[in-house]
Every structure is written in C-alpha cells, then in structure tokens.
Write a structure and sequence with these properties.
80 residues, mainly alpha
C-alpha cells in the first residue's frame, strides 16, 4: 500500500488535489472537459487505477484486521 500511496502523492502534488476528491470528481463526470488533453487523460486514467487499487487493498486490510485481529496479522522479525 505504501508504494501506491507514494504514486498517489505524485499525482496529488502535480494536480493540487487529494486523490479522494479527484476520484469523486472523475466518477461524477466533473472532469469530462479534460478528456481532450492527452496528458491529463493518460494521467487521470492511471491515477484512477492506482487509487481504486489502493482502495481495494485498504478495504482488504481492514477486513483482515477485523476478522483475524492485529496479533495474527502482525509480522515480527526476530532480532539477531
């Protein structure tokens, strides 16, 4: 998830809005005017895909945490 978050941050910094707000506007049709621009169309498509992947992984993590509990998920590395 951290790699996805880093990628989202790049788009957020480039376009000046948070990914959640971007996604809501895109899905709501507010950004249709940007379809004419190749760069933004490509960026928006990638940004949407990365954000939706991040959302799915976040939901999966929350579900696992609720079902299994933190102590079962926590990975502890032995100290050498």
């Amino acid at each position: 998830m951290k790699l996805l978050e880093r990628r989202l941050t790049l788009y957020e910094e480039k376009y000046g809005v948070l990914s959640a707000d971007f996604h809501a506007a895109l899905v709501g049709g507010s950004l249709a005017g940007y379809d004419a621009f190749d760069e933004s169309r490509t960026d928006f498509s990638r940004w949407k895909g990365i954000y939706e992947t991040w959302l799915r992984r976040k939901e999966d993590y929350a579900r696992q945490l609720q079902e299994r509990g933190l102590t079962e998920i926590l990975r502890v590395q032995p100290a050498y």
